[in-house]
Amino acid sequence: MKKLVVLGAGYGGMRILQRLLPNDLPKDWEIILIDQLPYHCLKTEYYALAAGTATDQHLRVPLPKDDRLTVKYATVTNISLADHIVTVEKGEQISFDKLVIGLGCTDNFHGVQGADLYAHSIQTMGATRKTYELLSNVRPEGTVSIVGGGLSGVELASELRESRPDLTIRLFDRGESILSVFPKKLSEYVQSWFIEHGVDVKNNANITKVEPGAIYNHNERIETDAVIWTAGVQPVEIVRALDVEKDRSGRVILTPQHFIPGHPDVFVVGDCASLPYAPSAQLAEGQAEQIVTILKLQWKDDTLPEKMPQIKLKGVLGSLGKKHGFGMMGDRPLTGRVPRLLKSGVLWMYKYHSG
């Protein structure tokens, strides 16, 4: 049997499994999925787990089951493109005929002193569990500092406000306003929500140092009980170590067909791929759909298209606690209860009807 090895059960990896199994995988092929956990995780909801408003179980989706799918629980330590071999912990080697790399991302601390040691993360399930424990144990009327005013930072700050109304919550952002990539109407709405609910937004921030019990903004020391980092991501180290061309963010530059140039059997999906969009679950799924199209053409020895269709993104939805939200549907900004209800509906459909 020939082997399609999929590294990571993230949004991209899951979509590939769902589209190929049970009927669209050639009979002489099998799939080996390598992941650290026995389930797919709803990463877009990690902020709620960290804040204590969603349970660990709520964020799990079962992996597909099929006789030709083998799940190996392991950590990838090396990828040899030339030898077609993936190495996992303890030196075990797994050969592949085709490979999909979907190992996701990790925090980018941008060289800020002490951030990698003393700031906490919501980038992985394991890190989010630790952050939940930290935030749950912050002393009454303590202070939490969140670095980064993008979608993750905003959702974490608002959810934590509902979970721990006793806390002082500070949100540090480099921009003139939070959610700077969104239309001004949305940014102003979210900023007003924070003012109304007592979240202290620090615009034009420049975090220069993190140490136990303190964070430094423009070198000004500010005491804090916890620091949560949501200020940027980068591909995991194993991908950054690959000897292939990458963009300025360290993501792998691909052909239009989503494989590594010179390696038509090695695809990269999700946060590790260099694409003309901001990384998102929706983008990873759209890219995965196109990778499945290319795989089917390769298996039939058909000619590959020179270009792929533009991946259509339906929009972005964010939450402000359990009752309010914001988002973009096409070019239309949404605020209030409607986007929050829409997000809950999308999450329910994904969790219970995915694939």
From TrEMBL:
Its cofactor is FAD. Keywords: FAD, Flavoprotein, Oxidoreductase. GO terms for biological process: aerobic electron transport chain. The keyword Electron transport does not apply. This is NADH dehydrogenase. Residues 3-284 form the FAD/NAD(P)-binding domain. Belongs to the NADH dehydrogenase family. Pfam families: Pyr_redox_2 (PF07992). GO terms for molecular function: NAD(P)H dehydrogenase (quinone) activity. It comes from the Bacteria.
